Amino acid sequence: MKQTIILKSLLLSAVAVAGLATSVFAGGDEPNTPAPAELNAGLLGQTYAGLTYSYINLDAAPVNAASYGFEYNLPVKTGFDAVFNYDWAQSGPVAGERAHEQQLGATLRAFFAPGGWGRPYVEAGAGYDWLKCAGIKDHSFLWIAGAGIEFQTVAKLTVTPFVRYERATGYDDADGVSYGVKANYWINRQWALTGAVSRNDDKDMTYKVGVNVSF
Q1: Would you call 28 helix, strand, or coil by DSSP?
Q2: What digits encode the pLDDT tens for the residues 81-90?
Q3: CA-to-CA distance for 44 and 165, rounded, in angstroms?
Q4: What stretch of H or E contains 78?
Q5: Using an 8 Å Cβ cutoff, are 48 and 62 in contact?
Q6: CA 15 to CA 201: how far, in whole Å?
């Protein structure tokens, strides 16, 4: 197993995902006044924090990996969110050693709702990555870009296909692309369950589960 490939695969584990459900009920003088449809219950434009666990199936490698992530989403103005991420990952043991990675990132996400079919978004940002394996340490600045469409399938559930690009300027394997789908389901107005499946250009598969809390 090449350490660089394993560590870059961990880099692309991507994204912990979470959201906020809001609903508005109409009042009125008429006893049978219908309530309007529930408003957006997804991730975009909401204030939330999320914790995730990811199992990473590394293609053509003797071991797999796991990742733990934290995400905080803060609306800064209508149609724009600031998204902050921290991820810690490690591979399985090889000759008694594990590869470790930490990644810190921040992006600005712009989104809009052209109609009832979905809410497209694009994002761009930067971050930093730290790698360690068998006593060897490395680090790199990151450029981050991504896009997706958030679909509200039912009142409390959103499904979001996405693609994400990262460029680690300090590594030989500098460019990486991952794509997949993530989902968010609100149990109540404060707590939600989230999950995602994604694949990167090294053919590694990532399976993610987590919880979110709204503020």
Answers
A1: coil
A2: 999 999 999 9
A3: 19
A4: none
A5: no
A6: 16
